[in-house]
Structure formats: C-alpha cells, structure tokens
Amino acid sequence: MREITVREALRESLRYNLAHNDKVFLAGEDVSVVGGGMGVSKGLIDEFGEKRIVDTPISENAIVGLGIGAALTGLRPVVEIMYIDFVTCCADMILNQMAKIHFIFGGQVKVPMVLKTVSGTSGGNAAQHSNNFYPMFLNTPGLVVMAPSTPYDSKGMFNMAIEDDNPVIFIEHKRIYNIKGHVPEDHYTVPIGVADVKKEGQDITIVATQALVYDALSVAEDMEEEGISIEVIDPRTLNPLDKATIFESVKKTGRLIIADESCLNCGFASEVASSVAEEMFDYLDAPVVRIGSPDTSAPYSHPLELEYIPGKEEIREAIKKVKKI
Amino acid sequence: MQISDKNNIELLRTMKRIRTFDETCQKLFVAGRIPGALHCYTGEEAIATGVCKVLEPSDYILSTHRGHGHLIAKGGEFKYMLAELFGKSTGYCKGMGGSMHLASVKHGILGANGIVGGGICIAAGVGFSIKYQGTDQVVVCFFGDGGISTGFFHEGLNLASIHNAPVVFVCENNLYSISMTSKRATGLDKLSTRAVSYNMPGETVDGNDILAVYESAYNAIERARAGKGPTLLEYITYRWRGHHAGEAGDGLFYREKKELESWKTKDPIRRYQALLLKEGKITEEKIEKMEMDIQQEMDDAIEFANNSPYPKAESIIELSMLKKE
C-alpha cells in the first residue's frame, strides 16, 4: 500500500483536478513557485503554468472576489488564504458574499468554489498566525466546512470540495501536513457530511478533529491496556455535521469527550456538546467534556505554546473525569 | 458620436421607465407596502441607461444598493422586480433578497449588493474569468462615491489592472455617501484621478448628460472588449431623494434645498427630452404615449406583485445549501 503525506495527498488532488477539468484553477498568495503558505501547490506551476496557478497580490478581498466572480461565471476556482488568521481581512467577501449569493439570489446561481486555508497553533507563530477561526464559518449558513485529518481523507475530501456546487471552506492543519498514511492512487471522493469512526470502542466516545484525531487515537491505544475501550470519531465535515454517527456512538457509550482546537467559548466542541445535551440527554451517563484551545490568544514563548495546544494530556484528564461517574 | 433615432428614443424610454419605477417605489415604501431599505435612483437615470445601452445581452453588470436603475437598463422587468420588493415568490430572487440583492443572472445582472463596494472585487473576478475563458464579454461594475473609499476598491482595481481584465468601473458620484460629501470623504475634486494608481485610464463625465455618458461608456467598454484593459469612469450626478426612502425630507438636514433645486434643473430626462424635441426626433404626442405605456407597465407590475404568493417557509431551508443530486 502506497503511503504519502497529507501535503502530498492534497497536491495529488489539486493535480488531478487541474489536469481533468480546465475550469479549475488555483489562486492565492505565492501559490506558484513557493507552493502557497504551506507548500501544498509546490511544483504545480511547472505542470500547469501561470494561467492555472495564479499568484495574487496581498489582497484577501480580491482573492475571494476572484473566486466568487469566476464561480458565478462558470469556472471552479480554488483560492488559498495563506493562514486562517487572514480571513478577517476578507470576512465580508466570505460571510456576506460567498456564503450568501446562492440564497439571496433565490437559487439562480451556484457558487462552486473552494477556499483553502490552514488552521492550528504551531512553531511559535504567535497570536496572529495561530488562530482557529473556523467556528465563524459554522455560524454562517451556506458554507460547507471541511477539516480532514488523514492523508486519505485529505485527498478524497479535496476532490469532493472541488466537485461540490456549494462554496466550501477547506481547513488544513499546520501540525499534520507531514503525517503519512495510505492513499490510493486512483481518483475517489469522500462524501460531505459523513463522519468516520477512526477506532471503534464501547466505553467512551471521543469526537476529535484534525491534529487531535491523532492524539485521541494514541491515548485510546494506551487506554486499551487499562481496559478502557474508546471510540474515536472524526466528523471530517464540520458543516453539515454528521450528528447521527455521533449520536449512535453516544447511545452505546453514554460518555462523550469532544476534542477540537478552536477556543472553547462558542467553539466547535460547544456545538457538538449542546447538540448532544439537547437530543441525547437520556443516554448520557456523565457530563460532556470539551477540550479546546484556552480562551486566550496563543502565546509565542515555546513552553507556553506547548501548554496552550490541547493534546494527549487534556484527553487523559477528560477520560478520568468522565470515568469517575 | 452618432446615435440612431431608434436608440435615441430607447434612451429616453429607459430613463423614464427607471424614474417611474423608483418614484412609484418611493410612494409604495411610504405607504408601507415595501419593507426594509429602499434606495431610489431618481436623478441619476442617465448613468445606468447610457452605460447599459452600450452592453450586449451576454455582458455582465454588478450593481449596488441603489440598483433598480441598473437592472431596468440591463433588461430587468418591472413585474419581477416589484414582486421581489414585495417579498413574493415570483420575484427575481423568490423573495429572498429584496431591493438590495436584486439579481437576474440570465440578464447578466450578478446582483445588487447590500455592502458598499461589495461588488468591486467580484467584478474583478468576473473580468478574470472572461479573460480565462477567452470570450469577448465585458463586465461593468457600478459603485458610488462611498464605495471608492473602501478597501475593495483598491484591491479590486489593482487585481483587474494586473490581469488587464475587461472590467469597466463606474463610480456614480452623487456627491454624498449618506451625509458625507465625496469631497470631505476623499479630499479629491475628481475621483477618477485615482485611476492613475492602477495604471488605467480615468475620466470624469457629466452623469446627467446621457449622450456624454453613452460616449464615454462606449469608449471604455469597447476598449475593454478589445483586450486593452479596465477603465475607471466617474459620473457626476445627484440623488433627488434621501439616502433611503425612509429618510426624512429627502436628506435636507445635511444638504441645502437650493442645492437640490439647482440639480433638479439639470434633470437628465428633461434635458434629453428637450434636445430630442428640438431636433425633431420625437413629438409631444409620442412622449405622451410613451409615458402612458410606462404607467401601464407599472400598474401591471403592481397587480402582478399584489397577486403573487409569498414564498413557502421551507424555501429558506431548501436554498440555504445545495443538495447533492
């Protein structure tokens, strides 16, 4: 079985779509020779040229506007916002235009575009390059929000994002680009709004996203030795959310932990927790525990940053909490 | 510039249609028949009329919150526009958008926009898309003197310029962004001087002179169509009504009555009608017949909008995200 990294899986999807659909192009800051902020598109300029791999000025409004205008007139653009922190520079274009045009035009036109960007705290990037701003997209109807964790899902979901007629926000994660995993060479898609049970278990459900999927799986493996069976669910698409898979799991385990890197206050974990509290109250045997980034800005100093990033330690603490009862 | 007799009469008819539509809407708003915000175009009719007369049906426009005139001039029909303003399911946007989001994609009208300057970067994207697809279409982006101070303006004109995209940027300078004069807001006598920064031609034209509007628009649009890139046009005009239809006393608490009265003497419709009469291109009888026909069209639209049903509640869910087929 061929193993490639998340970064390579994303590049493979981009390459496939550029090669098979001349309506697809990529635009963003430094996407050509540099390969974009995280090197995902590196090398594609040599294969597809300047028409398809379009460097843009540092103009986030224009980058998203470029995508919207192209999508409205028959193309299938992929635009990159280098860091999710910079979506605030083009918040109107995303939240008021890209997300709403299909609705406010009464369905006259589709906006089939992908906005790819990267989230996550890492490498001392400090408070303006470490945000996990995606909950604002979950609070804006009209956007599909994808946040894959594995190389397999990254490729299949990116293919799906380009194929789908909705505007898609595709969230990559800084700490997982180099993780390797099995990725078929053939073209495939991962459906929107379908969670993946990354590990089956009986005692506790952990809903985890992106880098925290790996932390959850690692802790779950350790817990097997202690006789605790943990089910790890990766929602993959944050909106629309596959609540059914989460609810089924909670029905079985009665105990739920949600591990997601957005800040706790009104974060993704809060949304999952409140949905379960609302609809699955009778099945819960313990209070739901949320794991997320603390409600502060990300610190620069290395030891503090390590403390700040939620991970295995927080998951272990949460398991203790839900097991107590 | 020579304009055929038929087109001369069409220009007059379109201006009168816009005037009738918006003056009727102003009354309907005051009577409580139209909810939300309504921004009348009265006094500015020559701009939309002259610019859109140059366009082909396959060309695109992006409009503004004060956009009824643009829609009418680009082929929008009274009855579907008014039905939209009444919030009815037969409106262009099925009652989901209203005045500030009026769009008719089949006419190339890619939407009014409730955000000042919100269409500028999208227009740059449409221009990019036209060039990418190699058609000979053109996109015209309307915005006001308020829009010229947004970041969208800078980013959008810059992007259009570096791609030599077929975009004509039309700044309708009605001298006030709500209450602030364009002179106070920009420090400039001519807003078109900003074109220099984007390496494109800029021109300031009397926006109440339909022939001057037509000629300048013709030159800019044909230049864009010939692949010679974008232009910034500034048309000086004046809105007779308040910023919105509910504003007390036509905005006379921030502008002088004598200023308004002096601009009314420069009425673009009366001015052009007098010219056509003088040159013997139209008769009083024909004008009377034209006005009666337009009034009939308006009355029919009111009847159509009145008799149309409101949209069903489910439609907001149906439109909020495209379903996978």
Q: How would you summarize the topology of this molecule?
A:
The complex is a heterodimer of chains A (325) and B (325).
Chain A: E1 3-5, H1 6-20, E2 24-28, H2 44-52, E3 53-55, H3 60-72, E4 76-81, H4 91-98, H5 101-104, E5 114-119, H6 135-138, E6 144-146, H7 151-163, E7 168-173, E8 180-182, E9 196-199, E10 204-208, H8 211-225, E11 230-234, E12 237-239, H9 243-253, E13 256-263, H10 268-279, E14 289-293, H11 302-308, H12 312-324
Parallel strand pairs in A: 2-3, 2-4, 4-5, 5-7, 6-7, 10-11, 10-13, 13-14
Antiparallel strand pairs in A: 1-8, 6-12, 9-11
Helix pairs in contact in A: 1-7, 3-4, 9-10
Chain B: H1 5-30, H2 45-54, E1 60-62, H3 68-73, H4 78-85, H5 120-133, E2 139-144, H6 151-162, E3 167-173, E4 176-177, E5 180-181, H7 182-186, E6 202-206, H8 210-225, E7 231-236, H9 257-264, H10 268-278, H11 284-307, H12 315-320
Helix pairs in contact in B: 1-2, 1-10, 1-11, 2-8, 4-11, 5-6
Tell me briefly what this model is.
The complex is a heterodimer of chains A (325) and B (325). Chain A has helices spanning 6-20, 44-52, 60-72, 91-98, 101-104, 135-138, 151-163, 211-225, 243-253, 268-279, 302-308, 312-324, and strands at residues 3-5, 24-28, 53-55, 76-81, 114-119, 144-146, 168-173, 180-182, 196-199, 204-208, 230-234, 237-239, 256-263, 289-293.
